[in-house]
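SEVERITY: medium
COMPONENT: batch folding queue
REPORTER: lab tech (J.R.)

DESCRIPTION
The queue accepted two submissions in a row. Attaching both inputs and their returned structure tokens so the on-call engineer can compare them side by side.

ATTACHMENT 1
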Amino acid sequence: MTVSAVVVSHGHARELERSLPAIAAQVDELVVVANVPGSVGEVPPGARVLAAPRPRSFAANVNAGTAATTGAYVLVANPDAIPEPGAVARLAAFAAGRPRCGLAGPQLRWPDGSWQPSRRRFPTVSGTLLRRTPLRLLRRPYERQRAHYHLDERPDGPVPADWLLGAFLLQRREMLDELGGWDAGYRHYVEDIDLCYRAAKAGWERWYVPDAVVHHAYAAIIDRRFLTRHTLWHARGMLRFLRKHPERLLALR
């Protein structure tokens, strides 16, 4: 069982100074994709750097990094995601024991050690409007959408998930090959939801494995500010998702 890691950096050389050594120590192969010049500094021994020929979407860079690796499992990690010792091994061991586990995600924690809600339900139109418009000032998502974020659940063992934040995901290569990888048509948001949704439709399981712990800074720009380019990117991503999966227009939960 081999695990390859792909980390995409868009000007995050400073964050990589902390995360790459922690990731490299837990995987068999590490590829860092530099989306723009200056995105990567010094890397651990054995790690490879791929320079994107031009700035590409996150998903396109993930696909390029995946194609450059050979492991049975592909770990996709954000530059600001730092795994605790043994985290990757716990994810891989769990996935190895379930042949239909296509994705496994860890328990994410904020840098201060507090719990971060990374296991979520597939989005609905009404729920997305509440989270991504000024309506969230009246009905705060982390108070009113407790089911979406599983806020009242703190499982101490693996549990199924609709989707998991793409900040740190272990993926079975067989699943990626079947699905055709990540959808490079997403600019920067919703590609992780889309991957998990396509996996679900194809019969692949997605699991949250809390014994694996990863610390994640999580900028969460669209949770804090309205009407930025990130807001527009997210809106475009959700529209793409609904065009691809129009049945979600009828989803009520």
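ATTACHMENT 2
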Amino acid sequence: MAVRRFTRSKWGDFINVAFLVTAGLFTMLPLIYAVCTSFKPLDELLIFPPRFFVRRPTLGNYMILPDLMSSLKVPLSRYIFNSLFISIVSTFFYILIATMAAFVLSKGKFKGKNVLFWIVQFALMFNAYTLAIPRYLIFAKMNIIDTYWVEILPHLASTLGVFLAKQYIDGYIPNALLEAAKIDGASHYRVFWSIVMPVIKPAWLTLMLFAFRDIWAEVPNGTIFSEQLKTLPQIVTQITAGGTARAGSSMAVTVIMMIPPILVFLISQSNVVEAMSSAGIKE
């Protein structure tokens, strides 16, 4: 009995591509609207109902930013430094800690390993809002409120990176490869840096994208009071507080703030799909 094979026609491929392109453009609407609004003059910002696209683009919203920033208590460069420093340092140590913990939970041989991994998965159920009060009490006991530590340490304990990296290691690093390296005399640290990290590059690049995006846009609530330690997102909130008259300027700052995460995405986007598709792999 002949087996019928079903293949898509050219029209079917065209419809699929058209649907994906339309869905992709729809998800980009907020980004397009933000860029268009940043070039709108004041009279177009006040029009009701608001227009999506700008008709008379102007650079005034960007040119006025230095004057708005001149009234700040500290230079704008200080806020930029704080954002970059916290984002880069937190992302680096987050990836390092997550991948090392995932390697131990995946290939380590000790009692209670499965219990620890269940705790990691259970911790994924909690978000920052449910942990706000306990975390504040812990920060107060540690005397790290109004310091860089209060913005760096919380991200290092995120368990999403451990979960994702462990699933990737389970699926892409066979035990035979590690045993061969140990026979050649490689230590645990040599195995981790020379074998594990290059193989799981898609996983930690994905973690870099997610971590940098979240840390860059985070606004500390009730933990940072010194103007010397504030970051760019907090400046955006101050500009936005100016009302509709500053809507264009606040959107201009928002567009500028989107540039670093977009650059990180361009670096890591080719590895994101591969890493996320491996998250469901089991031993």
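NOTES FROM REPORTER
The CA atoms of residues 216 and 260 lie 9 Å apart.
No errors were logged for either attachment.
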